[in-house]
Every structure is written in structure tokens, then in C-alpha cells.
């Protein structure tokens, strides 16, 4: 949901407050009015001049991007379709793109590609149901509503609180994934810099290919362990390197070092400073696409089709582990909590369905491009396709300069988006419980310590981003993607006397799919 960042205490060279005292009072009055009455009551809706300026309104996706909303004072959109489509693509593209090759490997190459296409169509349909949910409510002006307001209208306080809970699952899950990834990227970046400065000739202990474009298999011939505690590089006999490896460990020390950097940033009252760096998300995704293309050109394709039986180097085309991919894709295609806001600012509202469909098509093509290429070029033989990691960058050594650049860009991007997600968690949770986003330093610090502690524990004991993404995606997707849109649509049809049994069967089937998707994550 969009939220207003009051321009106070902004980290910048110019410490002058950017709003007058009168504007600040008007903002407080607007928030006060919003708590006096339900959003369906138009009597106490604040006037246009009280509404924050468009440059102070942002929308955040669970896994990555912050998008600045542009609109007129009367609420009408002014973005052309191409900008709207790019905004949706930019918002939906998150860190889950790193796990798509692993998910395709878990499902099997052929089955994985089919699942990506089907999940894209399925989540698009549910997203369209979310988009049209406001129009089905009669006799009430819903132009300012978001999907949680629709849930509250149909389900009362249960809808309001359940939407908050599932929103917290997606946001906190994203922050945990970010902490694991930042620990990974910081470790490999520091290792590269140390080896370069000290002229260390790295000898990998991992099984891998030879040549300049080396690909490694960190855990050959074993089940993927929950704890990546094994160092990628261990050299005994050099005391300096032994000390460095002891203090620069991927799971034991580096996740703790991030606390020094990120915990203070979570306590900022304003998130405007970090929102200025959100363009780096587009740059990072573009660079990943270029990196994958270069690797494909250099490594070539390595494919064999074995439909139901695995071999030493290839996995079957259809595998029973496919729910792991559906869980990842539920979050990869997740934009349902902010799609109304993004399309509300579309200049031509009649094109909303088309623009959303085109955006989903581009997102799906991006996932397929990265997933198919990484799977296809993974060198089998000598390595098994089962070696593809939940973060496909882990299949390249720290000494790879192109991958080093990718890790550095992603590390900086995630370190700026992480405080934004923390701010959104605080605004939603504290605002719902205490009525204000910053009740006290104690409350905020306690919340931040819980979030950071969860990230540190997962980075220490279970740094598998694929599993974290699929669990959080299947959980929040159960409500936002499958259950709420389907139930609300059937209720609206029933109230208008248009509900028919084919619609009941189809939307009930969607709900069953969402439940099965969640249950499947715990059985794999």
C-alpha cells in the first residue's frame, strides 16, 4: 500500500525541514480523520489540499522494489501505458529471480517451464480479480480503497487483521531473504577483495569445471544441506589466511557484521533517503540478464532429455518436487497487495487489464529467460544438474570478476531496500496496534531486533533462500492470491444474483490449489 513519508529527519546534507508547520498539522489532521470513520464514509474524507504531494508517496513490493507514485491532486492517473507496464515489471522483479533456475531443476526442465507459464496465467487471473474487486461494491465510493479495505468490507475485522498478518509474512520473509543474500554477497565480495589485495592464488576445494568461466558444485553427491557452513576456500598452512577465514565466515561471522550496518538504518523515522536508490533494482536485474547471456555464450548448452528417470548428470523432465517451484513462483509473481495503487495512476483506465497482462507477460519471459539459460548452460557433464544452487550465483566462484560485480551491485541495492521494507513493516504493524508508526524508541527497537534476529538466525542455520521464498510465498499467496480474490468474487456474484455453478467450481478449485501449494511446501 502507498504510505506517506513525512519529510522530517531526512538523511541529507541539507538538514532544513522541507515542509511548513502548517502542512505538518494538516497531515496530522488527515491521519486523525482517517481513524474517526471507515473508508466507506465520505463525510470526513480530507480535502485534496491535505493529501500528500505525489513525490512523497511510494509503493513497495514484498521482494524488492520501491516505486514512486505520480498522480494528480484529484486522483486521476497521468502515467501512459508504457510507464505503467514498466512500473509493474520493476515492482515485481525481486530477488526470487535468483532461485528460478533452482526451482526449474526441482520440478524438472520441461515440467518447470510449463509450471512457470501456468503460474503466470493463474496469478494474473487472481490479480485481475483483485483489480476489479472494488467495482463490484455498490452504492459506495471505493475510488480511494485498496485491497485490504475491500477485505474489511466483506469480512469485517477478520479481513482487516488477516490481510495485515499475511502482509507481514511476505514483508518479513523478504527481509529474511535479504539478510541471507546480503551475508552471502558480503562474504564473497570480501573474499574477492582479500585475495586480490594479498595476491592470493585461490585453489578451490569445490568440484567444478576448469577454465576461465569456472562453474562449481559446492555440495556434490549429497543432499543439499541446510547449513552452508563449509567454506568455499580453505587453505591450511598459512596463518594469515587461517585467521581471515576464521573471522570472515559465511554463516558464523558475516551475518553478525551486517547488524552494525543495518540495525541503525532501521530506526530512521523517514525512509525517503533510501527510496532514492530504488532505481538500482532495475540496473541489477538488467545486469543479471547480461551476465546470464554472456555465460550462455561462453559455456554453451548442455541438455539431455530423460523423461522420468535421472542419470548421473541429468535430472528427469518431470519430478515430484515441483511444489517447491510453485511456492517460489507464488512470490515471484506477487503484486496483488499494490496492483490497485499502481494501476490507479494509469492515464487510460480502460487499458488496465491489457497493461497488467503485458506486464505479467514481460515478467514471465524474464523469469523463463534466466531460468532456462542457467539450467541449459550448466555444464553437465562433468557436473550434475542437481548441483544448481538456490542462489545460482553460488555456482560461480568468488574469483569470477563478472559475478563479483553482480554481487556488489546486489549487495548495495539490498542494503538500501532493506530499511524500506523495515519501515513498511513498522508503519503497518505499529500503526495498526498503536495508531502511529513510531510509538517510541523502545517499541521500534524491539521490533527491529526481532526482525534482525530472525535474519541472523536464518543466515546462520538455514541460509537456503529458495526454501525461505517458497514458504513465505505459499503462505502469503494463500490469502492474497488464492483465497481472498476468489471468495470475494463469488460473494459479489452471489449478492448480484449472477453466481453460477461453473464459477463456484472454478474458484473453489483455485482455493484448493492455494491450500495444496502451502501444504506441499512442508511435504517436500
UniProtKB/TrEMBL annotation:
Cell compartments where the protein resides: Late endosome membrane; Lysosome membrane
Occurrences of domain Amino acid transporter transmembrane (ranges): 84-194, 241-518
Broad class of the protein's primary localization: membrane
Superkingdom as given in the UniProt entry: Eukaryota
Reaction equation(s) it catalyzes: L-glutamine(out) = L-glutamine(in); L-asparagine(out) = L-asparagine(in); L-tyrosine(in) = L-tyrosine(out); L-leucine(in) = L-leucine(out)
Topological type in the membrane: Multi-pass membrane protein
UniProt entry tagged with the keyword Membrane: yes
Segments traversing the membrane: 82-102, 108-128, 161-181, 254-270, 277-301, 321-343, 355-381, 401-421, 441-462, 468-492, 504-523
Family according to the record: Belongs to the amino acid/polyamine transporter 2 family. SLC38A9 subfamily.
Descriptive protein name: Neutral amino acid transporter 9
Species the sequence originates in: Polyodon spathula
Gene coding for it: Slc38a9_1
